[in-house]
Amino acid sequence: MRLVTFRFIDQQPRVGAVLGDTIIDLAAAAPLVFDDPPPPPWSLLDVLEGAPDGMGLDGVAEIVAAVIDQIGGADEEELQTSQYGPLTIGGVEMLIPLDEARLLAPLPRPSSLRCFESSEQHMAALARLHGGGVPYYWYERPLFTFGNHAAIYGPDAQIPLPRTIAFDYELEVGCVLGRTGCNIPPEEAHDYIAGYVLLNDWTARDIQREELIAGFAFSKSKDAATSLGPWLVTPDELHEYALDDGHFNLTLIARVNGVERSRGNLRDLAYTFPQMIAAASQDCTLYPGDIIACGAIGGSLLEATDGQGPWLKIDDLVELEASGLGVLRNRIVA
After folding, report:
1. Which label site among 25, 34, 76, 133 has the fewest CB atoms less than 10 Å from its CB?
2. With helix as H, strand as E and coil as C, how does the chain read?
C-alpha cells in the first residue's frame, strides 16, 4: 500500500491509501468495516498507533479491500476514479482523484527523527570537511543524530533558504516505525517497520563544518527542513527489491533543475534498517511514527563538487526519485 496525507476541498488534512489514480479516504470509508468509527479527520500517526481501535496497517488493508469489493472488485493497480464517479458514505466522498488532491508529508509531525550516517562514501566526504578520516567506531555500530521532527515539508512544498552560503540536499530513505519496542534484536526489527519513504535531509554545509570542527553533533546545520514523500510505502511494496542480507537493490537518483547530480543504491549502505533500528532502540523505547533515516546515498552536492559548490540557490528545483517510492520534488525559495 501507498499511504498519504492529503488535502481536498475542505483543506483539512486527511489520511488515505493510493490505488491507481485514486486516493481512498480511509476515515470516509471506515464505516464499511468498523462500527461507529470516530469522525474524520484522522492522521497517519493515529492509524499507526491503532486509533481508532482495530486500525493499524491491518485495519487499513481491510478498508481498502472493502472499498474494492464495494465497486465490484476493480484491479487495485488500475483503479480509476473516473470509472465510478462520486462514491459517498453520509455525504463524504470515499474516492478522491489523486490529481485533484494536494499531497502533504505522509507524517507531517513524526514522533521523532533519527538521522543515521550509513554510507561510507558520505562519511568520508563529511570527514574531509574538517580534515579528518572516517572514525574507526563508525565501522563498529550505526551512529545517528536527532533531526528536527517539527520542521517537516511534503512533496512540492517550497523550502525557504536558510542563512547559509552552502545549502545542500541529501538523497535518503527513511523507515517509519509501526510498533513500540525497546532493545529490539536486528532479526526481529522487520516486524516493527510500517513502511519506507523518500527523505531529503536538507543541510547547511558551512554550518555543518563548524559543528564538526567544534566536536558537536549536527544540529543547526540540519535544523531548517526535512522533506518526506510523496507517500509511505508498506514493506510488501518493496519485496521485489529485497535482498537476503536485509538490504534492498533499489536505485535512487537526485536531480537539480532536471540534471542528475547523484545516484546510489540502498544495497551499498554499510548497515541495514534492522541494524539501525536495533541501535536506536538500545536502552531506549521507539514508538509508532518514529523515523529512521539512513543517511545520504550516492552523495549530495558535497560529494559532487568535492565540497566546493556551487550550492543550491533560490528557485532551484530538487527531485529525489526511486522505483517503488516515487518522486519527492521541492523548490528553494527566499
Report:
1. 133
2. CEEEEEECCCCCCEEEEEECCEEEEHHHHHHHCCCCCCCCCCCHHHHHCCCCCCCHHHHHHHHHHHHHHHCCCCCHHHCCHHHHCCCEECCEECEEEHHHCEEECCCCCCCEEEEECCCHHHHHHHHHHCCCCCCHHHHCCCCEEECCCCCEECCCCEEECCCCCCEECCEEEEEEECCCEECCCHHHHHHHEEEEEEEECCEEHHHHHHHHHHCCCCCHHHCCCEEEEEEEECHHHHHHHECCCCCECCEEEEEECCEEEEEEEHHHCCCCHHHHHHHHCCCCEECCCEEEECCCCCCCHHHHCCCCCCCCCCCCEEEEEECCCEEEEEEEEC
DSSP strand pairing (226-233 vs 259-265):
unpaired
- Size of the chain, expressed as the number of residues it contains: 334
Query: Do 329 and 317 contact (CB within 8 A), yes or no?
Result: yes
Query: Looking at the predicted structure, is the pLDDT value of residue 226 above 90?
Result: yes
By the 8 A CB rule, do 233 and 195 touch? yes
For residues 180 and 281, what is the distance between their CA atoms, to the nearest angstrom?
10
Q: Which of 25-39, 67-81, 146-160 has the lowest mean pLDDT?
A: 67-81
CA-to-CA dists, residue 156 to 183, 302, 319, 332, angstroms: 37, 23, 9, 10
Question: Which amino acid would we find at residue 16?
Answer: G
Entry pTM: 0.93
In sequence order, what are the residues at sequence separation of 6 or more whose Cβ sits closer than 8 angstroms to the Cβ of residue 41?
A: 12, 13, 14, 15, 27
Q: What domains, with CATH codes, occur in the chain?
A: 2-104 (no CATH), 112-333 (3.90.850.10)
